[in-house]
Write a structure and sequence with these properties.
Helix content is 53%, strand content 7%.
C-alpha cells in the first residue's frame, strides 16, 4: 500500500532505522527532528501517517499531536505516538491530545508495519469519503450557479442554520448536519429544467409538480453517504409545513425534524431578503413580519421563529449577497 509517512524523532539513529524499514516496504518517507519542523512538513509534505516521538526538546509529542488534530487540514491524519513511557497517565495524555495509536520502545518492526498498514487503510477510506463529499458540494454549488440570483445562497444557509442550531443548544452532530445541509439541501434541483428554475413569473401547477420532486431526488443522491445520515431528513423535509400543507410527505407538527424546520426558516428568510426579477428584497423586519403572519397560519414553529427573530435582530443574520427565487 503506497503512502506518505512522516517520522518525527530527535534521535537520528531512531529516524534512520524507521526510515530504512519503511522505504524498503515502498513507502514515501520524510523525517524531521523537531515539532516545529513536523508542523511545517504537514503543510508541505502532506503525510498520510505521522510517527511521532513523545520526548523531544522544545515542543513535545503531545503538543505536536494536539496542534495537528486542531488544524482542519490535518485533523484526520493518523498520528502514532512512539514512547518509552509506560505509565497509564502518559497514554491518557496521548489520547486526550488526539493520538490514534501508540508504539512502545523498543519498537517491534512487525508490529510497526501492521499498525502502519492498518492506519493507512483507514486514511484511504477517510480520503475517499472526503472526496465523495467534495463532489456533492461541488454539484450543489454548480446548481446554485445556474441562476445569477443564487450567488452565496447555500453558504448563507449553512452559516445561519448552524448559528440558530447553536443558539438552541442542539447537539454538535446536528449542528454539523445543518452546515452540510445548507450546502446540499437543493441538490435535487439537478433534475429541474432551467425553464422552470429560472422562470421569472409564478410557477404553473405542472411546473410545481416537477419542482416538488427535488427534495426526494436530493435525498436519493446523498443517501449512499453514511456520514450524511442526519443530513438526509433535512434535505427531504425542508419544505414541510406544520399544518400538513408542505411537501413531499405532508408531515404535520412535530413529525417534521427540528433541523429541517430550522433550515426552512433560514431558507424563507434568505429568499425574502434578496432581490428577485419580479420584486425587490424585503428588509429584515419586513421579512420577519411576513414569516410571523405565515406562522399564524400554522406553517412554522412559533418557538423556532421567535429564536430566529432574536438572532436576526441581534445582528447575526450573516448576509453577504443576493440569492434565489423559487424554492
Amino acid at each position: 500500500m503506497p503512502g506518505r509517512i512522516l517520522i518525527v524523532d530527535d534521535q537520528a539513529a531512531a529516524r534512520l532505522a524507521l526510515t530504512t524499514l519503511l522505504r524498503r516496504e515502498g513507502f514515501d518517507v520524510h523525517e524531521t527532528s523537531s515539532g516545529d519542523e513536523a508542523l511545517a512538513q504537514c503543510s508541505s509534505f502532506r503525510p498520510d501517517l505521522i510517527l511521532l516521538d513523545i520526548v523531544m526538546p522544545g515542543m513535545n509529542g503531545f503538543e505536536v499531536c494536539r496542534r495537528i488534530k486542531a488544524t482542519p487540514e490535518t485533523r484526520l491524519t493518523p498520528v502514532v505516538l512512539i514512547t518509552g513511557l509506560s505509565e497509564t497517565e502518559d497514554r491518557i495524555k496521548g489520547i486526550n491530545a488526539g493520538a490514534d495509536d501508540f508504539l512502545s520502545k523498543p519498537i517491534d518492526m512487525n508490529e510497526l508495519l501492521a499498525r502502519t498498514r492498518s492506519l493507512l487503510r483507514l486514511k484511504q477510506y477517510t480520503d475517499e469519503l472526503e472526496n465523495a463529499e467534495a463532489v456533492l458540494f461541488t454539484l450543489a454549488q454548480s446548481i446554485e450557479a445556474r441562476d445569477p440570483y443564487t450567488h452565496g445562497h447555500c453558504e448563507r444557509l449553512s452559516e445561519m442554520s448552524a448559528r440558530l442550531g447553536e443558539r438552541l443548544k442542539l447537539p454538535e452532530e446536528q449542528i454539523k448536519a445543518l452546515r452540510r445541509a445548507g450546502i446540499v439541501h437543493d441538490i435535487g434541483k439537478v433534475v429541474v429544467p432551467d425553464s422552470i428554475l429560472l422562470k421569472t413569473e409564478p410557477l404553473s401547477a405542472e411546473d410545481m409538480e416537477i419542482m416538488r420532486k427535488h427534495p426526494v431526488v436530493g435525498e436519493n443522491i446523498c443517501k449512499p453517504m453514511r456520514s450524511f445520515r442526519l443530513v438526509l431528513p433535512i434535505i427531504r423535509h425542508h419544505h414541510e409545513h406544520r399544518d400538513g400543507s408542505g411537501y413531499p410527505d405532508g408531515l404535520r407538527g412535530d413529525q417534521i425534524p427540528v433541523t429541517a424546520s430550522i433550515l426552512q426558516l433560514v431558507d424563507i428568510y434568505d429568499a425574502l431578503t434578496t432581490d428577485r426579477p419580479y420584486r425587490r428584497a424585503s428588509t429584515p423586519k419586513e421579512a420577519l413580519q411576513i414569516m410571523e403572519s405565515e406562522s399564524a397560519r400554522g406553517w412554522w414553529d412559533n418557538d423556532l421563529l421567535k429564536a430566529f427573530r432574536e438572532m436576526i435582530l441581534n445582528g447575526q443574520n450573516g448576509r453577504k449577497s443576493a440569492t434565489n427565487g423559487h424554492g
